[in-house]
Amino acid sequence: MTDFTLYDKQSAPAESTALLESSISALGRIPNLYAVMAEAPGLLEGYQRLHQLFLDSSFDDEETTVVWQAINVEHECGYCVPAHTAIAKSMKVDDAITDALRNETPLPTAKLEALRDFTLSVVRSRGNVNDEAVQAFLDAGFTKRHVLEVVLGAAQKVMSNYTNHLANTPIDKPFQRFEWHKVK
Predict the structure, then answer these.
(1) What is the pTM of this model?
(2) How far apart are CA 41 and CA 20, in angstroms?
């Protein structure tokens, strides 16, 4: 496997320095994902921007977690599942939701299950979701805006999940206690 560099502020390409500094300001550190992405400043900037846009979407914290983790688990991202477990905890998302997502077991509500089902339909069909699946999602209490915001979340997760697969990004120390492996 190709070795990717984990950059810091001193070693990163100049175009990534401010992006890494903003991570330190916001998070107190540079997550390993960002350290890898710094190799390609446009990727890092795009990811950080999409992350904020998705956080600012019309989904609440539980729904945001469902979209992120459904995709992380589907993509078998051994970095993002633990990272988003920690993020869900910081967002005060019920552990029952996180556990169901990590273990691919039923979610506590039909509405959250409909969100996971629709998100997985989008990912698995690469956006070619049939009308019945869209209608089922709308009937569960979501809107057309939510349909498109799932696409936003999927775009963000493709960037991180694929980067982590290619770079074999090491799990950050704060996330290691949430290590995850897909049950086969």
Answers:
(1) 0.95
(2) 10
